[in-house]
Here is the input.
Amino acid sequence: MKIDVYFTPLGAKEGEFAGRGVVVIDVLRATSTIVTAIASGARAVVPTATSEEAVRLTANLERDGIVLAGERRFVKIEGFAFGNSPREMTPETVGGKTVFLATTNGTPALVATQGAEPVLVGAAVNFTALAEAARALFNERGDLVIVCAGHDRQFALEDAYTAGRLIRAVKARLRKIELNDAGEVALELASRYAGWKDAFEHSRAARQLAELGLADDVAFCARPDRFTVVPGYAERRIT
Here is the structure.
């Protein structure tokens, strides 16, 4: 029984995720935003690798049924309705609509997992439900991949901590489980901090968000179990 962790999707070879069960984590903020959007009644979220792709995909769509959202370097993309804040994803703004989302780290990580089956979207805000779904998947297959989005193509503490918490939840009561080296490190991180708030406060991304006046987003993302939905990504759509 094996769990592999990738601290960024860049370390994966082509086809590495094919047919495997995957959890994608970008807790500050893309996966938190996606979970919130789906919980708020969005019909779907379409992750795109770039803002240009999001604009191209929506060029001929009925505007009443779509929402463009995204950020570059934490800042809302010019011309888009929303940034990458989960606090913007309310029933009033996204209910019944399809959100096309382009972010610096999270949406490219999701796009990189195409071919995996299933792909679960996880964060602290849906952690208990995510852990239950991931545990069931792992018990069924004996295999799980956790892909962290990272930060600027590098290790991100908040994602790795969340991955470690997920490993700990999935492996509960299992004696023998094989982890890759990144999984071992993530599991150690899960014991180092008192909780998501503590881990986030030590992360570079949280500090940068706070400097930009987005500390409320960090607080939102750090509160676990706001939602019970576990969105799934298939055929370029998250539902």
About this structure: Residues 21 and 102 are 23 Å apart (CA to CA). The chain has ten helices and eleven strands. Residues 127-141 form the longest helix (15 residues).
